[in-house]
Design brief:
The chain is mostly beta strands and 91 residues long. 10% of the residues lie in helices and 26% in strands. It starts with 19 loop residues before the first strand and ends in a 16-residue tail after the last helix. Bound molecules: zinc ion (ZN). Residues 22, 24-25, 47, 51-52, 57 line the site of zinc ion.
């Protein structure tokens, strides 16, 4: 009776409100990649400076699909391609 139904406690993760900081150069990393996997979505972060080699400091963030609240926005980002073969860019 006292349970507030219709207000389920949904815990979601919005990667766009999160800050990813590099432990090496101490600056914030930016999202450079987004990929959908079977169980989770993968966000790739890199340092945007000349201090770090992205191959060394790159961050791979995995978010469980059912908790990921950022998919819509991530899909709008230019680096996201649903299907590489669907690119009408070729000549
Ligand atoms: Zn760095």
């Amino acid at each position: 009776m006292s349970e507030p139904e219709g207000f389920p406690e949904t815990h979601v993760i919005d990667v766009f409100v999160m800050s990813v900081k590099c432990g090496n150069c101490d600056t914030y990393q930016t999202i450079v990649g987004f990929k959908k996997m079977a169980e989770h979505n993968v966000y790739t972060y890199e340092c945007e400076n000349d201090l770090c080699d992205p191959n060394v400091t790159r961050t791979i963030l995995e978010v469980p699909k059912h908790l990921d609240n950022s998919v819509k926005r991530a899909e709008e980002l230019p680096y996201y391609s649903k299907d590489a073969s669907a690119e009408p860019d070729e000549t």
